[in-house]
């Protein structure tokens, strides 16, 4: 099978290699990958993954199953975000544990479906497992136009009927967050508390942070309501002063969507349930794909360009690539 691996000579480049097609055992599916999408994690781990195939988000067709697989059979169309500890989706075939795989929404092409899994899982787990949001309330999504923010806005607005304010600093990204369902957009490069006050919000009940946590930590401590909750999906290079949240009794959680597969947690199969719920919501027209850029067929060159585009820090929504015909 074809695999597109990080070049050993230059980890900004990729090389196409022939590898043996793996055989599924246990809970694994062997999936023929039809399309993939990029996430910042691809670019963050690339320097440490010479000679390895990257790629997390994928959409494809099951071609063989391990002996313990119960939910899928050959021919099923599936989508998933994969496991950060295993070989990636930048290959014509990939093994993936059925507990973290959902059925692909039938209304989407593979490339549109591949844009969704990693960001949907992060947004869903952040909102419903960490923030435990219920109907209503106000939510601030910091970095609303990136992949995760775009899904967090859609879910909070269209599924949980919250008042959603999202941050975006350009006209195009502000327009995008509103198209995802945000009631208002504010600029994360200016005083966020003052902009929220101007909109009539002294505080917000919850914050979903999708940007470097240290950068916006003080603003979050100021904006969050007493008894409120913050979830962040981006680590901090410096220690955070949690005492800033003490007097307001604010809860702070981290969300990392690879936790369940990395530690083989007993609730790992909730990722299958989440992806299946997202597929239902897409088919019902509640959620839409966030694919904004189709970068064509995956080659070493298009993949390197896609990484550069993701690293520019200006992505709105998601970038996808189709796997060449095998
Ligand atoms: N923990 C997890 O499981 C998990 C999962 C997925 C992603 N992540 C992490 O979450 C982060 C976001 O990833 P993503 O794919 O959603 O989006 P992304 O593609 O990294 O986000 C691009 C957007 O970032 C915005 N941005 C630039 N500077 C900003 C700032 N100072 N404050 C706030 N936003 C800013 C830009 O908006 P403007 O141009 O409007 O400024 C741009 O549209 C990444 O660090 C990624 O590694 C973590």
User: What fraction of the residues are assigned to beta strands by DSSP?
Assistant: 25-35%
* Overall 3D form: globular
Q: What is the second-level CATH architecture of the largest domain?
A: Alpha-Beta Complex
Tell me the distance between the termini.
8 Å
Total individual domains: 2
Task: Enumerate the distinct ligands.
Answer: NADP nicotinamide-adenine-dinucleotide phosphate
Taking pLDDT < 50 over at least 5 consecutive residues as the criterion, the unreliable ranges are: none
- Total of DSSP H or I helical runs spanning 4+ residues: 10
The CATH C-level class name of the largest domain: Alpha Beta
**SSE string:** EEEHEEEEHHEHEHEHEHEEHHEHE
Task: Describe the protein's architecture and organization.
By secondary structure, this protein is an alpha/beta fold. The protein folds into 2 domains: 2-116 and 288-322, Quinone Oxidoreductase, Chain A, domain 1 (Alpha-Beta Complex); 120-257, Rossmann fold, CATH 3.40.50. Helices cover 29% and strands 26% of the residues. It has 10 helices and 15 strands. The strands form 3 sheets. Strands 3, 4, 5, 6, 7, 14 and 15 form a 7-stranded mixed sheet that branches. The longest helix has 14 residues, at 117-130. The model has no long low-confidence stretch (mean pLDDT 98). The structure holds NADP nicotinamide-adenine-dinucleotide phosphate. NADP nicotinamide-adenine-dinucleotide phosphate (NAP) binds at residues 39-41, 118, 122, 142-143, 145-149, 167-170, 173, 188, 210-211, 215, 233-234, 255-257, 313-316.
């Amino acid at each position: 099978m074809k695999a597109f691996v990080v070049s050993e000579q230059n980890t900004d480049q990729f090389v196409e290699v022939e590898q043996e097609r793996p055989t599924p055992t246990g809970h694994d599916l062997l999936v023929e990958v039809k399309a993939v999408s990029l996430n910042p994690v691809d670019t963050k781990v690339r320097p440490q993954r010479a000679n390895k195939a990257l790629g997390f988000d994928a959409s494809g067709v099951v071609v063989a199953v391990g002996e313990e697989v119960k939910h899928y059979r050959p021919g099923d169309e599936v989508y998933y975000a994969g496991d950060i500890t295993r070989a990636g989706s930048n290959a014509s075939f990939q093994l993936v544990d059925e507990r973290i795989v959902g059925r692909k929404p039938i209304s989407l092409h593979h490339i549109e479906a591949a844009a969704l899994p990693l960001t949907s899982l992060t947004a869903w787990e952040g909102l419903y497992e960490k923030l435990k949001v219920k109907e209503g309330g106000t939510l601030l999504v910091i970095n609303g136009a990136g992949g995760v923010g775009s899904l967090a806005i859609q879910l909070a607005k269209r599924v949980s009927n919250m008042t959603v304010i999202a941050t975006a600093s350009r006209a195009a990204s502000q327009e995008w967050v509103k198209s995802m369902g945000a009631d208002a957009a504010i600029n994360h490069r200016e005083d966020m508390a003052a902009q929220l006050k101007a909109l009539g919000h002294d505080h917000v009940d919850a914050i979903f942070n999708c940007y470097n946590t240290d950068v916006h930590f003080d603003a979050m401590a100021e904006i969050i309501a007493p008894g409120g909750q913050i979830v962040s999906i981006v680590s901090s290079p410096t220690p955070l002063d949690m005492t800033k949240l003490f007097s307001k009794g604010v809860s702070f959680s981290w969300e990392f969507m690879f936790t369940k597969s990395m530690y083989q947690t007993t609730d790992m199969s909730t990722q299958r349930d989440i992806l299946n719920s997202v597929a239902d919501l897409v088919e019902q027209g509640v959620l839409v794909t966030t694919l904004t850029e189709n970068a064509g067929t995956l080659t070493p060159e298009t993949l390197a360009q896609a990484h550069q585009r993701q690293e520019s820090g200006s992505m709105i929504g998601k970038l996808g690539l189709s796997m060449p015909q095998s």
